[in-house]
Structures are given as C-alpha cells and as structure tokens.
Amino acid sequence: MSAHQDTHSDAGRQGGRKMTGAEIFVRSLIKEKVEVVFGYPGGATIGVYDALHDISDIKHVLTRHEQGATHAAEGYSKATGRPGVVLVTSGPGATNTVTGIADAYMDSIPLVVFTGQVPLRLIGNDAFQEADIVGITRPVTKHNYLVRDVTELARTIKEAFYIATSGRPGPVLVDLPKDVMAQKAVFEYPERVSLRSYTPTVEGHGKQIAKAAELINKAKRPVLYVGGGTILSNAAAELTALARKLNCPVTTTLHGMGAFPETDPLSLGMLGMHGTWYSNTAVNYCDVLIAVGARFDDRVTGNVEKFAPEAAIVHIDVDPAAISKNVAVDVPIVGDVRSILPELTSRVNRLPTEDWLATIAQWKREHPLRYSAGEQIRAQYVIQKLGELTGGNAVVVTDVGQHQMWAAQFFTWVAPRTHITSGGLGTMGFSLPAAMGAAFANGPLPVISISGDGGFQMNLQEMATIVEHKLPLKIVIINNGFLGMVRQWQELFWRGRYSQVQLANPDFVKLAEAFGCPASRVTRTDEVEDAIRKLLAHTDGPILLECRVAKEDNVYPMIPAGQSVEEMLDTPEPGPAESGAGKEPQQLIVLHKGGTPGTSPAKQSHDTVPSPTQ
Ligand SMILES: Cc1ncc(C[n+]2csc(CCOP(=O)(O)OP(=O)(O)O)c2C)c(N)n1
Ligand SMILES: [Mg+2]
Question: What is the 3-state secondary structure (H, E, C) of 40-56?
Fold first, then answer.
C-alpha cells in the first residue's frame, strides 16, 4: 500500500503502527498538501527518496542543480502563493541551496528546504559530505532546525510550514540526519502549532488605523507607495479599492508591480533608482506617503535624508522590524495588509487631488519613459512588444541586470503574481529555474523567462529539466554581449574603463537545440514582432528566442546609488548622446501606459513621434 493510500488514518486508527522517519516525512508533506517538490538525491537522503518512490500525490522534480531547485521553488511559490518545497542531500547538496535560500529570505518567499545530514554521531567529525547547514543558513533563514529525534519530526515539519507561511513569509530549513530518518515512531501530525515566542500580528490596531485615516484625510498631495507585501498578502484588490476611493496616485516597487493595474491613469509605474521620472518626483513633493507592504529599500529611497522630505508617512507592514528601520515613519500599522486595507478604506474620504493629478499629468507628458528605435533592436522594444502582444496576461520572470529594469519599465503590469524577479538579493541565474517553477504551477497564463546573456549562463543546466517535462516556457535572451548593468556603471561612474564585462558567448540557438528546445534568433527590429508571435503561439513544450540588441545601451531614468531625486538622470535626448542608438535613422517611442491622470482611463497607448533628429 502506498503511503498516500492510508493518509486518512491518523495515529490512533493505525493502532500506533510505527513507521520510519522517511515515511513520516512523506506523510507530513501529504498532510501539508504539498504537490511539487524540487530536489536532487544523494547518500544522506537515499532513504527519504526510497519512501518517495511509490507516492503519486507528490510530484518530485529532479532539477539539474540544487540552486535550480531552490529558485524553482521560489518561482512556484510566487506564482501560486503556496510554499515552495525543496529536498536535497547533505554537504554540497545543501550548500548549493544557500543562494536560493538567501534570495527567498530577502524577498520574503515562503520556502521549506529539507536537507539531508550525516548521522547524528558523525556530526562535527568532518564526515563525508558533512556541512553545518544549520549554522551556514542561520542568517538567511527565518528559522531552521536540526531534527535530533524521530519523535520530533512531524511537529518540526508542521512548525516549519507554519513559520514559512505566516507573518512575513520566508525560508525555513529542516536538517534531517540519516539515522533519524531510519528510526521509527508513531506518526501523529499536530493539528495546530503553538509557539510562545512567535505570534505574528494579523489585525491592525484600530487606533493606529484611525490615526492614519485622519492624516490621510488632510492630504492634498498623497502618494501610495506599494511593495511586494501587498502581493504576498493577496491584497491587490483591496489596494486598488483604496487608491480609487482616495483618487490617489500609486507607485509600486519592483516587487509591487501588478498590485495596481498600470493601465489606470492613477498609476505612476515603478519608483526608485530606475523608476519613472514622475514617480520619484511625485514622492519628492508629496505631503502624505502611504507605504503598503514596502520596506524602504535603498534602491527605492536612495539618500534616506532626502527621501519624501515633505511627507508625513503612514506605513502598513506585517513585520514590526520593518517599521522605521530605514526611514522614520509617523503612523505605523502592524498587521496583515489584506486585513488592514478595507478598514482604512472605510475611514478615508475622496481627496481633492485634481490639481495634484494635473501636475503629475504634466510631468508624465514632459518626462515619459522613452527610447528611440532604428534597425538595431532595443531591448525596450522587445519588452514593450511582449507586453502588447500578451496584453500583460503572462507571468514574466526576469533575471538581474539591465533587461530586468527594462522589463519593469516597459512591460505593462496589470495583475498580481505576474511579475517574478530577484529583487533583494539580485541573483543572476534566477530567471530560468524560477520560470520553470512557475510553469509547474500550471496556471492559465503563459510563462515567459527573460534573461540577460550573462544570467542565462548561470543556471542554463535547467534547460534539461524544462525539456524533460515539456514545459511550455517562452525563454527570451536579451543578448547585448555584456554584463550590461555593470558595464553601464563603468561607463557612467568609472570613466568608461570596461573591466571584465565583455562576454564571449556560446551560440544560444545551437545550445538550446542541443537540449532539444527549438530556438531562433533576431538581429533587426523588423524581425521582432513576428518572432514574438511565434514564441507565444508555440505551446508544445519550451521555445527560446535570442534577441541581439544594442550593445551599449543604458537604463534611464537613473538615480545614482545613494543619491536623491535632485541627481536623477533622465533619458537623454535621442541622437549621439543616447548610447546604443547609433547613427541610423531613429524614431522616438514614448510609452504612456495608462494615459495620463485626470483624463478618462485610456487603454495602453504607444505614441510614435518623429524624433527631433530626423
Ligand atoms: C550571481 C550574481 N553575480 C554578480 C552579480 C552582479 N551583476 C549585477 S547585474 C550584472 C550583469 C548582468 O548581465 P546580463 O545577465 O547579461 O544582463 P544585462 O545587464 O546585460 O541585461 C552583474 C554581473 C549579480 N547580480 N549576481
Ligand atoms: Mg547582457
């Protein structure tokens, strides 16, 4: 009988039959309704893998590297809202997960990572494939455990899932010594968890909500600053209701994209280092800043002394440690965003923001997101076309670098959980495995992985996993021949001395084909649209498109690190000043995602206006 077949019987009904730690592990995952585990076996977990062998309810995905497994679990979690689960062996298997765990920690992604460990009596002996993974991951996990006795196993797993998914979510690691997994005990899965030292706040304090409402009701130039916590708490609809009731402009962080539809005239797009000119300017002049599930990251604030200098700040966050951590706030509300927003919305009035919105509309007209396009492909154009041709209805998973920022800027984000990226840690190599994990979620939307030529090469082994499972992934490589983001910094701030940023790349098309994935390449702007249409139409397994883009293009606007809106570099005028544009005839393309505030909601429009240099 498979372990699953008698999951419904609890310990009592089984008459106290004892089972091994490995079986208890499998039963516990079934109790947690885990559907997919990303992992890689080895000596220390061979017994656990044996117990998994007959289980049909849990799909185990054999990735080609443990880093791939952790990023896949992150992608799966971000796409579904469920915890991602990883199972790896001891020593190198465990250490290979560290980057993914740290990534999940920085971006508050609920993961439960199970690592094999050498038998208890060998711990500390430099045994074969021993690594102190509990020690190594202590600073990058929300909590971690070494299971010392099989009788503690089920309770530990229950706690691990609870801690990973409650409060501010994050990764939890459970280290499983080989002998403990072979010991026997009666399986009893606890119904509830009670941890004296861990009781996350859900409901916001009524008095704080009232204070926040009072402050907001006096605002003339409010801005909603919306972070990833809004999406993690599934509060996009509640946030949108608040913004529309207030008639308040909304800017989102990299992880907040999709919490508010960018087709709405109230949308300001992204703020921060590569945010829109008008979002950063609006934050600079706002009188009340309402931060929702955001953490005032340095890529958002720049110089904290000069961030939102005129604003009283309301901060809603589930994590009390995030309050006034980087920027002092006036009214904190600790609790779950989704539970707080409706109450706040019921207490606020529609604000007299017409003048403020008219000013912002003017800024939008004067400083739009823009680039010029000629024969040479601009990455911005590829992204914009992906947005247009999908109508924003896709899960887009980006890597780290220039293409990541262009994706944030030029794709039109309309729905939560459609934008997946590595924000806090900024992990190159994230996109391909994370997109793979998102594809295993089997959602209704197509999944598109966008990588740079550098990042793609950091986890490209997962092409084998993707092909094996015939995942209908659309893989786009933005190939600029450079570690583009580092090159941009060297160009702008290090006198153009390019040090170790030029890439000698493989033939990406042949490489994909070697894995069994159809692939093609575009080198001219007029080839892009057709190629994307083909990419989107291909649903029978994965497909890859390499886009050879302008090599020395830069991401604008840009607030240099640690500086303020006063030092913001807007997009240069087209022509020789704009790197990447070359000398060929150019068209200036201006992106107005949601029309402009104060006008009736326009659908996404892309004006093409002749460039002054034509
Ligand atoms: C694992 C890792 N190593 C190094 C970096 C530093 N880094 C940030 S962006 C970048 C360049 C990325 O190049 P590519 O993937 O080609 O993307 P592009 O910027 O060209 O779009 C580098 C090296 C990083 N973020 N992650
Ligand atoms: Mg590159």
Answer: ECCHHHHHHHHHHCCCC
Instruction: Read off φ and ψ for residue 432, nearest 5 degrees.
Output: -60, -50
Cα 443 from Cα 447, distance rounded (Å): 9
Q: Is the peptide bond before 585 cis (omega within 30 degrees of 0)?
A: no
Q: Which residues contact 47 (CB under 8 A, 6 or more apart)?
A: 20, 21, 22, 178, 181, 182
Amino acid identity for residue 562 in this structure: G
d(CA 542, CA 550): 26
Q: Is the CB of 553 under 6 A from ligand 1?
A: no
**HEC letters along 6-27:** HCCCCCCCCCCCEEEHHHHHHH
Residues in the chain: 614
CA distance linking residue 262 with residue 258, whole number of Å = 8
Q: Which amino acid is at 164?
A: A
Q: Tell me, what amino acid is at 232?
A: L
Q: Is the CB of 403 under 6 A from ligand 1?
A: yes
Q: Are 478 and 453 in contact (CB under 8 A)?
A: yes
Contact predicate 329/304, CB 8 Å: no
Say how far apart CA 282 and CA 608 lie, in whole Å. 26
Instruction: Walk along the chain (614 residues) in steps of 10 and give the mean pLDDT of each run.
Output: 41 71 98 98 98 95 98 98 98 98 98 98 95 98 98 98 98 98 98 93 96 98 98 97 98 98 97 97 98 96 95 97 95 98 98 97 96 95 98 98 98 97 98 98 96 98 98 98 98 96 98 98 98 98 98 96 94 62 72 61 39 30
- Given CA atoms 450, 456, 461, 464 in this order, what sign does their dihedral have? positive
Are the CB atoms for 399 and 456 separated by under 8 Å? yes
If you measure from the C-alpha of residue 451 to the centroid of ligand 1, how many angstroms do you get, rounded to a whole number?
10
Nearest CA to ligand 1 atom 17: 452
Structure tokens at 563: 């500086």
Instruction: Please give the angle made by the CA atoms of 458, 134 and 62, to the nearest 5 degrees.
Output: 45
Q: Which two tokens stand for residue 528?
A: 């892009």
Please tell me the distance from the alpha carbon of residue 107 to that of residue 548, in angstroms, as a whole number: 31
From atom 5 of ligand 1, which residue's Cα is the shortest distance away? 428
Instruction: Determine the Cα–Cα distance for residues 335 and 205; give it in Å rounded to an integer.
Output: 8
Segment (H or E) for 180: helix 178-182
Identify the residue whose C-alpha is closest to ligand 1 atom 9. 401
Instruction: State the Cα–Cα distance between residues 174 and 147, nearest whole angstrom.
Output: 7
Distance 272 CA to ligand 2 centre (A): 22
Interior angle at CA 105, CA 67 and CA 325, nearest 5: 155
H or E element, residue 98: helix 98-106
Beta strands 395-398; 419-420: pairing state: parallel
Amino acid letter for position 355 = D
Q: Which two tokens stand for residue 449?
A: 């992985």
Q: Give the Å distance between the CA of 424 and the centre of ligand 1.
A: 14
